[in-house]
Amino acid sequence: MHKRLVTVAQIAEFDAIIDVRSPSEFAEDHLPGAQNCPVLSDEERARVGTLYKQSSAFEARKIGAVLVSRNIAHMLETYFLDKPRQWRPLIVCWRGGQRSGAFSHVMREVGWDAYQLAGGYKAWRRHVLAELVTLPKKFDFRVISGATGSGKSQLLEALARQGAQVLHLESLAAHKGSVLGGLPGQQQSSQKSFETRLFCALNKFDPQQPVFVEAESRVIGKLRLPESLIAALRSARCLRLDVAFEARVDFLMTDYAYALHDIPWLLACLDKLHGLQSNDTLARWKRMAAAGDFRALVSELLQFHYDPLYQRSQLNHYAQHEGAQLISLATVLPPTLDAKAAEILAATDVARGVARIN
Q1: Does 181 map to a domain?
Q2: CA 121: distance to chain centroid?
Q3: Which residues span the domain enclosing 69?
Q4: Average pLDDT for 51-75
Q5: Which of 2, 24, 145, 327 is deepest in the core (most CB within 10 A)?
Q6: What is the pTM assigned to this prediction?
Q7: Among all residues, which ones are annotated catalytic?
Q8: pLDDT, the chain, mean
Q9: Residue 148 and residue 122 share a domain
Q10: DSSP labels, 276-331
């Protein structure tokens, strides 16, 4: 069976990317825009693997051939009968071996110009990791810092609405980055999937224009930022938000409304502060949560946990934090943030990526 192979650099040449790995492999991570058409389900793959180990390779191949043939026939009938003769699919499996080989062979026999990705998903993964080492070094990052509740993410979104390049790490990670940052009922992705999304975001940016990003720690929820990105952010110029304490409390009461009224989830989050706060403090905060005294709880969390943590982390980790441009906000409301975003960009030569704000 003759193989037609292409590299990661040629992915954009194809009309579709068909990932024939099992659903669990696909769910962990996959090429952007890929469609999952597994030639073996997770259960079938386990069955063939068990036969291979406990019986023989020949027995495993026989059963595997039956299952793969049946699944390919189903995929062709279900998804591809309407595709024209000139349609060009790229077939991806784990290493660019038998699974993608079988699928692409059948497609070529039909008459489609099907190719396999050389090295399969593993080649894609190596490409992503290599690019995440070099890409962050190419950009002029502008780090938006500020105490918890200052509206950093909201200012990023306002900047994006004004046409600025924005790297929204918390959006990519599906987590707000704090002990209360998890979204109820929503799981974060795998580390591999997060890194793929991060690579795709960085790869779209123009190095000649600044990229605005929020100050983050090394970990957002359970997901780690690449060391090269961390190094780039910590040496970048900063814009520091200054928002009155009560305005920050007002904002957090709205922004975390979904969490504050989910008492069991809120109490579980507070439990994560064991070792960082005294038992007496945690007991008091839990009583506030149970009693629905959310404003007092938010105020104390800022005063005794988040604000001291912010002061330590920014001064220790961001080289240009002390010289940051100070941005004062009376409120963290969309009209105010949109106006401030326009003001920031007006003071920045976005077309050439040369700042005039420091």
Answers
A1: yes
A2: 18
A3: 5-129
A4: 94
A5: 145
A6: 0.91
A7: 93
A8: 91
A9: no
A10: TB-HHHHHHHHHHHHHT-HHHHHHHHIIIIIHHHHHHHHHHH-TTSTTPEEEEES-
